[in-house]
Amino acid sequence: MVKLVAFLKRKPGLTLEEFYDHWENRHGPLIANTPELARHIVRYEQHRRTALAGWMGTEGFDGVTIQWMVTPAALEAFIAEPAYAELIAPDEQRFLDTDSLVWMVTSEPTIVIDGPPA
């Protein structure tokens, strides 16, 4: 299993609520409801930046997405789908500051703590 982890910034001019609305109600469902794209993804997570305290994260980032895929080849196949170029790439331009996108593909984690504190 590999995970695509991306730190997201909203496109200049969008409010935070406009960004979240588009990300959660348009972009996520667009991927999930396009079978030729969704078939490459095991799990797709959207994480909003917490509003609990301003110091909890690098300034300017609005959310994190994590897409779980079986292999790196699944990510390559996802991006190579014609529906990605037709639907997803243009949609990303509508709500993301794509020049500020920070992303990484990770492999299986090293578990350091696994459970509640004693």
Describe this structure in words.
This protein has 4 helices and 4 strands. It is of the alpha+beta class. The protein has one domain (2-48, 61-106): Alpha-Beta Plaits (2-Layer Sandwich). A 4-stranded antiparallel β-sheet has the order 2-3-1-4. The mean pLDDT is 94.
Name the poorly predicted regions. none
- Approximately what portion of the residues adopt beta-strand conformation? 15-25%
Order of helices and strands: EHHEEHHE
Q: Write down how many β-strands occur, each being a DSSP E stretch of 2 or more residues.
A: 4
Q: What attributes does this structure have?
A:
single chain, alpha+beta, 118 residues, four-stranded antiparallel beta sheet, Alpha-Beta Plaits
What would a concise description of this structure say?
The chain contains 4 helices and 4 strands, in the order βααββααβ. With 118 residues, it is of the alpha+beta class.
Topology readout:
Elements: E1 2-8, H1 16-32, H2 35-38, E2 43-48, E3 63-69, H3 72-80, H4 82-95, E4 102-106
Antiparallel strand pairs: 1-3, 1-4, 2-3
